[in-house]
């Protein structure tokens, strides 16, 4: 029978094919769709990860504060060392000046004594 309208068997075949396609789509959605349980698990996992990250940032901030305190301490100690070096440098300069003055005085005395020795030698010869 060749009629332009579909036969009942053809209609049933078309409907069966369409139901099969709908069933495949429903199966895919069921297999890949998130359940409330999986969403809750994901939420808990993300919260746990955020807690770890927050904790790490907190530790890093504490360490940063400690490092800054150490740097301030080192800077203060360096300033103290600079002051002590300046004092030592001043004392060394003063000591050098004193030694220089003593050296000049002693050189003058030696020169004067040498002149006296020459004078005495000239008298005795």
* Residue-averaged pLDDT: 86
Low-confidence stretches: none
Bulk shape: rod-shaped
**Using DSSP, what is the number of strands?**
0
**What is the helix content?**
over 70%
Number of helices: 2
**Cα gyration radius (Å):** 52 Å
**H and E order:** HH
Structure description:
The protein has two helices and no strands. It has helices at residues 8-32, 36-124. The protein is mainly alpha-helical and 125 residues long. It has one domain. The longest helix is centred in the middle third of the chain and has 89 residues, at 36-124. Helix content is 91%, strand content 0%.
Topology:
Elements: H1 8-32, H2 36-124
What's this entry about, in short?
With 125 residues, the protein is mostly helical. The protein is built from two helices and no strands.
Question: Which terms summarize this structure?
Answer:
mainly alpha
